[in-house]
Amino acid sequence: MIQTIRGFRDILPEEIEVWQKIELEAKNIFENFGFKEIRLPILEKTEVFARGIGESTDIVEKEMFTFPDSKGNNQTMRPEATASIARSYVQHKMYSRQPEQKLYTIGPMFRKERPQKGRYRQFYQIDAEVLGIDSPILDAQILVMLNMLFKKLEVKNLLTKINSLGCPGCRKKYNEILLSFIQNTKDLCSDCERRKTKNPLRILDCKVKSCRNQLKGAPLLKDYLCRECSEHFKALKQCLDLENIKYEIDDYLVRGLDYYTKTAFEIQTLELGAQSAVAGGGRYDGLVEILGGPKTPGIGFAIGFDRLVEIIASNQEVKKEGPLVYFLTFGESAAKKAFKICNNLASQGIKSEMDFSNKSMKASMKKANKSNCKFCAIIGENEIEKGIISLKNMEEGTQEEVLEKDFISIIKKYI
Ligand code: AMP
Q: Which is the closest atom of ligand 1 to the Cα of 111?
């Protein structure tokens, strides 16, 4: 038996309803806010992520599936979608045709992390990004949109955390102040030791307990924001209050990617144990420029699709919809009749199925029951002789004979 690779998994037909439900709701809500879908390649030139996400981030340093093409140039299975969307914005010069773009994409991402519950090497994200708008009202709208989706999906126990990461101007000053504080700390983990020179901000959100303890009392970025960044953050909070979005300011939220500026956020749930982040995102006003485009503001988020499915599947029973009619046939001419009616129903958008097994009535009825159909249509020798079809209502347990010629118009009444 050949099995899937560690960290990779199948999503089976019996699990798919929740995925489809979430996808549909997300698309509906995003489109109500003016977003359009974009589909992007899974494989990109490595530099899209190395430049976009940042060389010194965990993702780029340790987690990417990268391999050379036939000419020795590195290519990478995308670990996230934001950098690809910015690459596409630049490549297709969207900025010259329509600089304001609201885009979403749904699909698999790949990271070479240690697989565990809620953490896979191929996982799925629902990603939405807005390019070309710098208003803090948009930042709030993005969070409203996310909260609206979670509410629609009846996800409870959520916590929206926000922070401001400032701009390169105020962050540079803060980095120096943070570094001088850190110089006095001992026993930081090896990752944080490395971050000291490469990316000191990331030390703030290290999950290692001893690092966290030592960082209590560290100077906070919020006290060093420039006027523009602090007004942006204030306006965001005011708009969230206008919509009664509950949030918590987390001074230690920095997120793992280099490109963030100003607003950063994460939505956490109390329902998933250790892997509590179900969505994360923020503003990235420098990314498009880093990837070779004009200076363009941007903001977006990624929802962890797998984790959202896990919460919803454990809390809600998503009803599996069966066919309207399931045909049981006995004999070849009955099967051919069912074959024709099934095709006719499908062409009219009505779901039906037929049993191909030619087994006993009892065995076939068992299959009909399992299919969760509303009606079971039985065609045997007797029915063919009389030009009728026996129609069993599975919910009520009643059975009637309907004329074959009237069958479709009768069944259509039950849609
Ligand atoms: P990030 O792109 O790291 O900000 O992640 C956004 C969201 O994707 C997280 O909040 C998680 O819900 C989800 N996520 C990230 N990495 C994984 C993974 N390896 N497996 C499953 N979900 C993930």
A: 19
